[in-house]
Amino acid sequence: MAGEFGAVLRRLREKAGLTQDELERRSGVSVSTIRGLETGKRSNPRMTTVQQLADALALRSGDREELLRAAVPGRRGGGTGEAEADAPEAGTAQADAAQAEAAQAGAAQAGTAQADSAQAGATAVASPAVPPPPPAPAVRAAPAEAAEQLAKAVAARWQREEEQRRIQDPYPLPVRWKAASETLTDHWANIRRLPPGVPSGPLDLSGRLEGVAETYRSIPSGRLVVLGRSGSGKTVLTLRFVLDHLRSRTPAEPVPVIFSIGAWDPTAVTLRDWLTEQLTRDHPGTAAPGPGKVSLASALVDSGRVLPVLDGFDEMADGLRRPALEALNATTLPLVLTSRPAEYAAAVAETDVLTSAAPIELTDLTLDDLDHYLPRTTRKADRSDPAAGAWQPVLKKLREPSPDGSPAPLATVLSTPLMVALARTVYSDTPEHDPAELLDTERFPGIRELEEHLLDNFLPTVYRRSRPGARGWDPERVQRWLGHLARHLTELRTPDLAWWRLGHGLRGSTRTLVTALVTALVIGLVDGALSTAFGGSLAGGVLDGTVVGLLAGLLFGLVHWFTYTVTGKDVQPSAVRLRIRGRPRSTKWRAGSRLVIGTLGGAFFGSAYGFMVGLLRALSRHAGPASALETGLIDAILFGLIFGGAAGLSFCLLGLLETPLDIVSAVSPGSVLRADRRTVLIQLVFWAPVFGTAVGLGAGVVVDLLQGHLGQLVMDPMSSLMLGTISGLGGALGYTLTLTAWGQWCLLARVWLPLTGRLPWAVAAFLDDAYQRGVLRQAGAVYQFRHARLQSRLARRRR
Question: What pLDDT score was predicted for residue 42?
């Protein structure tokens, strides 16, 4: 029974919109106890604990009785016949409030009849003497307000995306569905959330695109699986569901958010943590601190204020679908899941159906649908006959019976919205193309040839047309560039084309080597120019720039290698901005950690740099090995202290000036890139003089403090000025190129990949143009190919 109590407690907590930490503060029960009860690790909860939890949740009588029955096995219909008779009545009472009250009263009488002195506390739970405390508005205000802001941002984003995809032009294709196979359906009693013993039957789940939100709300469990073959309209349905659900949403309902589940690795990260990461990526403002020392994204997910719409279960790697389905079954989160039927059925065969989920299956388009849609997408060819057009003869031919009675291959191909959209682009939008060629059975003997023809001609068609204000792109080069991107995503096993991960198409060693070499070149040029300006000697400046550039490139390359390549992490865009003027809203959330990280990193860099420079300087004077080693160690200590203190101070100040982005900030790949570039440039402008000044002044202070302890130390003002200037610019540039998303974008996507022919030089403009032409779509902060079939086709042709 402990497992049942945990499930009931968790459901009631999520219904109340509380995290475990919030419930701890309101009830006085430790979060470890709450977590243990919800997971079943703690059994037989004490009645005082149950009462504290019920009071903190402000439960009504029916929910209190349910929590009590789960905690006390003896109260589950085991007292009198009256309670047993009322149990089925309580299930039927879901549609009748009067019967529900009678059932609850009967259950309470049954509990009283069997209560004895050992269960006096249990009776007190059903009728508490002290009224429950009112909810704490200060605790719940932040997540509630964030949920409303998130709803506005999601609605605005997908409304723009629907317009960009021309879904309403001239009208949405009729997407219909029916109930899926019973073998893929859970027990209807679980779907309808009925208590034991209550008769249950299937729900009528058939419907059309305009009624998808109503269909979802008719499912008591709040769990829906959308099945459909490739191109059947699953993604369009999820988009329409989000917009319709938000349009009629009440403040008590969660906010539907689309997540591309194909990017989730359930063996490496839990569902809730992954949802939090994706929410933070697509809505950087949710990275701001929320209640309980967690981010707003985590608070929104944990409190049930986000309704996950998980698109593309079939796009997961084969070995990940089973653990993904098991992880979904381990949660009670309401959700919407889309998949192709075969992949979902295979995962079900390996484990089980999605618990409490009602599955629906999308049906094919009919010839009547094509008759109503395709002719309206073409220009009128004959003014005297407005109905005449290029598609009429084709559609008429498709209605003629074939000799063997089977449907024509073209009719089968055009039964999915994806292929209809491709056919419209290739033929309706280009009057010089005649769709009658699709009826040529010698050229297109089967379904595969027709589909490949439409996929292969999509890109040449959309890039043949010129766009106002856009540059022209060579279709052959476009094919190669998009093929590289498609293969890049296929190798990464993700549908998300993130600008900050474009360099991951290279091997990790190559990426690190390029980063180190370019960083060495940039810092070496800066050092050489400044050394020449300060010293007046070109030869000395070239020598110093070469040595410093190689050392800096090596050290920054090692930092990049250990920070990202070895760990497999990404250089993520910044989720904050800098506020120089005025006090930031959050001034403590990263300053302390930045102080420690900056000090340790600066000390390591300074020690390595000082040891190498001292060693090389001593050897250039033909000093012996022992003397050279001593000089290197002294310089290592000296520069370690200088750079450690300067870096710690600079990073601490950066942390104090950082403030999180707003949730309602417009998020698109371009806006995230611009925001990250702005943040990095401000950091560069701020960090370089602060760090340089700290190094220059710190050098004199450290030399004075260590004078005599490490021998005779010399640091004249001109040397301090040169060290501070070079260190400020070099350190800022090295940090930018190796440890920021925008720096890696400039280095790899704007230089190396175009230099090797994999991408164009104007990468951002190319991606935006592909989006405007309908080749790519936006999913928050990332791009995705218009359809997985298009991505797969381009990747195969690239190989």
Answer: 73
d(CA 543, CA 620): 12
Give pLDDT, residue 362: 96
Half-sphere exposure (Cβ direction) of 73: Cα atoms closer than 13 Å: 5
H or E element, residue 208: strand 207-208
Angstrom distances, CA of residue 694 to CA of 313, 685, 698, 728: 52, 15, 6, 9
Query: H helices within 197-354, ranges in order?
Result: 212-217, 234-247, 271-282, 296-302, 318-329, 341-350
Q: How far apart are CA 648 and CA 656, in angstroms?
A: 12
- DSSP characters over 101-168: HHHHHHHHHHHHHH--GGGHHHHHHHS-SSPPPPP-HHHHHHHHHHHHHHHHHHHHHHHHHHHHTTTT
What's the pLDDT score for residue 23? 83
- What is the strand order of the sheet 358-362 is part of? 207-208, 176-179, 358-362, 223-227, 335-339, 306-311, 255-260
According to the model, what pLDDT value does residue 279 have? 92
Q: Reduced to 3 states, what is the DSSP secondary structure of residue 409?
A: helix
**What is residue 381's predicted lDDT score, i.e. its pLDDT?**
58
By C-alpha distance, which of 32, 660, 26, 672 is closest to 297?
660
- Residue segments in the chain with a per-residue pLDDT below the cut of 70: 1-3, 43-44, 47-48, 72-141, 379-388, 469-470, 578-593, 660-666, 708-709, 711-712, 714, 799
* 776-779 and 255-260 strand pairing: unpaired
* 630 burial via Cβ count (<10 Å: 0-12, 13-18, 19+): middle
The answer to whether 661 and 297 have CB atoms below 8 angstroms apart is no
In this predicted structure, what is the pLDDT of residue 592? Answer: 67
618 Cβ contact list (under 8 Å, min separation 6): 627, 628, 631, 632
For residue 335, the surrounding DSSP H or E stretch is strand 335-339
**Tokens 């390359």 belong to residue:** 557
Pair of tokens at residue 457? 């001609």
- Amino acid symbol at 170: P
pTM: 0.73
Helix or strand holding residue 671 (H, E):
helix 669-706
pLDDT at position 626: 85
What count of other Cβ atoms lies within 10 Å of the Cβ of residue 89? 16
Distance CA 740, CA 573 (A): 7
By the 10 Å C-beta count (0-12 exposed, 13-18 middle, 19+ buried), 368 is classed as: exposed
Q: How far apart are CA 246 and CA 242, in angstroms?
A: 6
CA distance to 53, 208, 701, 711, 726, per residue, from 696 (Å): 59, 70, 9, 21, 10
474 class by beta-carbon count within 10 Å (0-12 exposed, 13-18 middle, 19+ buried): exposed
Q: If DSSP codes are grouped into helix, strand and coil, which group holds residue 576?
A: strand
The CA–CA distances, whole Å, from 229 to 111, 454, 737 equal 52, 17, 44
| H/E segment holding residue 339 | strand 335-339
Given a contact cutoff of 8 angstroms between Cβ atoms, the answer to whether 654 and 706 are in contact is no
**Which residue from 313, 225, 232 is spatially nearest to 266, judged by alpha carbons?**
313
Cα–Cα distance measured from residue 231 to residue 777, given in angstroms and rounded to the nearest whole number: 15
Q: List, for residues 617-633, the tens digit of each pLDDT value.
A: 787 777 888 888 888 88
Residue closest to 778 by CA, chosen among 672, 707, 638: 672
Cis link prior to 170 (omega < 30° from 0)? yes
pLDDT at 519: 92
Number of neighbours of residue 247 by Cβ within 10 angstroms: 10
Question: ∠ CA(770), CA(772), CA(777), 5° rounding?
Answer: 70
